[in-house]
Amino acid sequence: MKVAIIGGGVCGLTLANILEQQKISYELFEKSRIARKLLASGNGKANIGNQNLTIEKYNHPFGYQLVSKYQNQLFEFWKSIGLHTKVDEEGRIYPYSESSLSVLDCLMKKPLHILENYPIETISKINHKYYLNDVRGPFDYVVIATGSIASFIPKKQEGFYHHLENLNLKMKPLFPSLVGFKLNCNFQRLDGVRIKCRASLLQNDKCIYEEVGEVILKRDGISGICILNLSSKYARLENKSNCRISLDLFPDLNINIKSKEELVGLVHPKLVSYFQEDSLEEINIKLHHFSFPIVGVYDYEFAQVVSGGISLEEVNQSLQLIQDPNIFVGGELLDIDGMCGGYNLMFAFCSGLKIGEALCNIK
Ligand SMILES: Cc1cc2nc3c(=O)[nH]c(=O)nc-3n(C[C@H](O)[C@H](O)[C@H](O)COP(=O)(O)OP(=O)(O)OC[C@H]3O[C@@H](n4cnc5c(N)ncnc54)[C@H](O)[C@@H]3O)c2cc1C
Description:
alpha+beta
């Protein structure tokens, strides 16, 4: 039995380790450098998981079900590759070294059969065997773990999606997620200001999702971890009209100032001058409802993940394609995305474990 793995991200490398441990023959093909996103994740610290798993952390219950089922195995797997971890007060799991490179070094401890700078463009099937780019093969099973186009510069936005066309798979529409919003605002003078507040995503004045945290104002929009989480909900809205971001600058206090001088020492100095042209009444409204229409989100280049991908209707519980069970799909290429906090890497790891388990059972 021989397996082809397409994509050297967390999903592909986790699977390669399992197959290596189980002495199953495989080759992993990586189009450029392995684990580029893992290395960039968590600002180089790699937030690889989270102990606070709840169903709403993922766009679809499937993500939650898979990760909650495999989380103990995931700790065992990290142990088996020598990765020590620690958990912060919010349940976020990091490598003990706080370096994403340690995660990659552990994934690469055993020599793996990897071909880097080897883009796969075609998968063909001849007499029940698979060939990649018509020259590599034969393989008995193919695992597609090519990730998403998040963080790619616009010209390179193809990802692996167009190579999937001949498989005729149902795709959920793609949209940048875990990304900042472009707002109808003029934040020229506020660029870079950070505010701890409650951020709400509103549609037709109804709150869809809110979170307390730090936001970062940009010249034409807004970012920050809680804003990225709002974008995860926004990405899933079929109709995105009449949406706004509203900030409550004092979520725990009922602030009502009597003169503009009171702003000094109350809000960021740049906000003091920003509010100078407003009336007292307008300022008092804005302190609790600093609200701006959403123009859109920043491009895929600035997104941490992509919402959408191969529809879950196309795979069974073992992540095999229903139309061809000898082809598996894992990681972010699937229509699964999570919120900030390690949920996306955790899904990539666990889907690699799931596919590994299925292949070991076949062996
Ligand atoms: C800046 C940034 C920070 C992030 N931080 C976090 C974080 O802290 N915590 C968290 O949980 N998530 C984080 N994420 C998201 C997380 O990194 C991804 O969800 C996760 O890496 C997806 O893993 P994957 O294995 O599915 O895909 P990827 O890691 O994207 O790997 C897919 C691989 O397939 C290769 N490939 C694509 N096409 C082909 C082809 N045709 N032939 C061969 N190879 C191909 C790609 O080059 C890539 O190496 C972050 C993402 C970004 C961009």
